[in-house]
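Form 7-S
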Amino acid sequence: MEYEALGRRPVTPIPALVEQPSSCPDYTRLAAGSGRVTLGGGLNKATRGYSMNTRFVLTAAIAALASTQAWSQEAHPDMSFFITSEGPGNGADLGGLEGADEHCTQLAEAVGAGDKTWRAYLSTTASEGEPAVNARDRIGEGPWHNAMGVVVAESVEDLHSEDNNLGKETSLSEKGEQINGRGDTPNMHDIITGSQADGTVSAAGNTCGNWTSSASDGSTEVGHHDRQGGGADPTSWNAAHGSRGCGQADLQGTGGNGLFYCFAID
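Output:
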């Protein structure tokens, strides 16, 4: 028998909650110290209160987790620049500039940024009476922010200078995630641009048929979003080297995955 320190009045010990008899299989089973709750009938008041409290806490925790996951998919309201988290899947055949722009828009819409006008950072050569298009001329005037709200460039000139804020930590996807770079598996740091360092169309015309070809005998100029690697200009974010071909496997073979840059023009 246990006694209180004062008055030596008997204290009735609180019995441990144990598994109910097998003849009542619908009872809550709460083995002492196990923390396992199975809802059922025939609960005593202590167990019923514990079960209700546990259910309330679990429900609240699940709701909070769902809210956090939903929030994490929303980009910063100032987002105006990102690398596509995935390409269309057909190598450098993006359906031309129009298809590439649409892909940017769809990814932006998925994170709540579909109210802006999105353009892919891609150049094209003159073809069939149409003039060449320079990537730098189709992305607006800036400034541009990534999915976390960080400024990556103040203007077109700043973007194409050594003073820009582009790198693996800032050149994020529309989801705010880092893209695999050199040293990661798989490496996906080759970002297709078809452009020279100043943002004009590739001098060699490496645009994979102006973004309509997935053939292995073509090539596109790519940049390194992590600013490291091989090629003629390994630290360039938009003009590091040419790819081995235009197919998905070709792009992956040189350290890419058919990803490209997207900019909001408004």
